[in-house]
Amino acid sequence: MTEMAFGTVPVRAGEPVLPKWWRTIDKWALSAVLILFGVGMLLGLAASVPLAERNGLEQFYYVKRQAVFGVVALVIMLGISMLDPRQIRRLGVIGFAGAFVAVMLLPLLGTDFGKGAVRWYSLGFASIQPSEFLKPGFVIISAWFMAAAHEVGGPPGRAYSFLLTCVIVVALALQPDFGQASLVLFAWSVMYFVSGAPIALLTGIGGLAITGGFFAYNFSDHFARRIDGFLSTDVDPRTQIGYATNAIQEGGFFGVGVGQGSVKWSLPDAHTDFIIAVAAEEYGLILVLCIIALYATVVIRSMLRLTRERDPFTRIAGTGLACAFGVQAIINMGVAVRLLPAKGMTLPFVSYGGSSVIASGIAVGMLLALTRTRPQGQISDILARRGR
To answer: Of 135, 106, 136, 111, whose CA–CA distance to 122 is shortest?
Structure first.
């Protein structure tokens, strides 16, 4: 029926998987991700050494661990990018189910590692943050619900996705993890808009989010401290924000020199949440702008490809994954320059952390798979055939 309605598109019969994957993948986005990982390893060589020394470990202990995590993440990313949208949907649903159960069990089995928020499972040799793996699965299952609502006689998918979002946001806020909760809510809002939701409804949801923030400020000391610190006109130079702000100012345009920065010796999270401060101090604004350009390349290239996609699920899911990836980077860098309250969010592929880099590999692998060029996958092709 598809061929009768839209015509046929030449397909290379019997083409091997790897040549077909290479021909259809977005090479610009793939290259940007690989460069980001390389930048992360470069910055890890500087940022993680002081932490290793403080913990009495071998000098490049964390760098080696990040290399292992990174290789695993890249292999997973490349493997997932070879899947088709139907397989991505199945993988996303299964992954979401596992991550959702893990998040729900955190109050019973999780740990806070002395940070005041129960977000991790300790395995002894490593730790897992399930909320990182929840995000890509959540985007996929929400896109599936929303796409189903477009079908004649389909279920109320938008309502289902909204209820699911509320459950997840509440569960994350109770950890408390307001950063991940905000990211989930943002990703859902973007997908909801793309699926055809009216602006008035999204405005109402925004009002509910603001109301939730008001209650969180009044009933959560953790949230209130971060907001008060952000709104304060004075920055304590002995806090992480103070160290990061000073490092960025010291770096200037070209940095103080490779290995010459001092902020990595003062910041306990220099290798994770504040890795951009190390980049700004040692390499200057030039490297920071390059990093921003790499994230922008992934997001913009993906969005441009998705605008030509006619399948609702692919378009909605791809948009959610691309926006979540880009906004997480914006939040991390915004916190470092004090444009946003501290949220404890990593910089994808650049910050140290097994959960972060592997979850980013899963999400970007899904995004690369959904943005691959496929037969009959572009609206412009269909319209051109109809006009003949």
So the answer is: 111
Q: Provide the residue type at 380 as one letter.
A: S
- The pLDDT value recorded for residue 381 is 52
Q: What are phi and psi of 172, to 5 degrees?
A: -70, -40
- Cβ atoms of 180 and 135 within 8 Å: the answer is yes
The 3-state secondary structure of the chain, one letter per residue: CHHHHHCCCCCCCCCCHHHHHHHHCCHHHHHHHHHHHHHHHHHHHHHCHHHHHHCCCCCCHHHHHHHHHHHHHHHHHHHHHCCCHHHHHHHHHHHHHHHHHHHHCHHHHCECCCCCCCCEEECCCCEECHHHHHHHHHHHHHHHHHHHCCCCCCCCHHHHHHHHHHHHHHHHHCCCCHHHHHHHHHHHHHHHHHCCCCHHHHHHHHHHHHHHHHHHHHHCHHHHHHHHHHHCCCCCCCCHHHHHHHHHHHHCCCCCCCCCCCHHHCCCCCCCCCHHHHHHHHHHHHHHHHHHHHHHHHHHHHHHHHCCECCHHHHHHHHHHHHHHHHHHHHHHHHHCCCCCCCCCCCCCCCCCHHHHHHHHHHHHHHHHHCCCCCCCEHHHHHHHHCC
| Total-model pTM | 0.86
Q: Which amino acid is at 138?
A: F
Total residue length of the chain: 388
The 10s digit of each residue's pLDDT in 30-64 is: 999 999 999 999 988 888 888 888 888 888 888 89
Peptide bond into 176 cis (omega under 30): yes
Place of tokens 């730790």: 127
Q: What is the pLDDT of residues 193-241, one digit of tens each?
A: 888 877 776 677 777 777 777 776 676 665 666 666 656 666 655 667 7
Q: Which residue has the tokens 């109770």?
A: 174
Per-residue pLDDT reduced to its tens digit, 258-299: 777 777 777 777 778 888 888 888 898 999 999 999 999 999
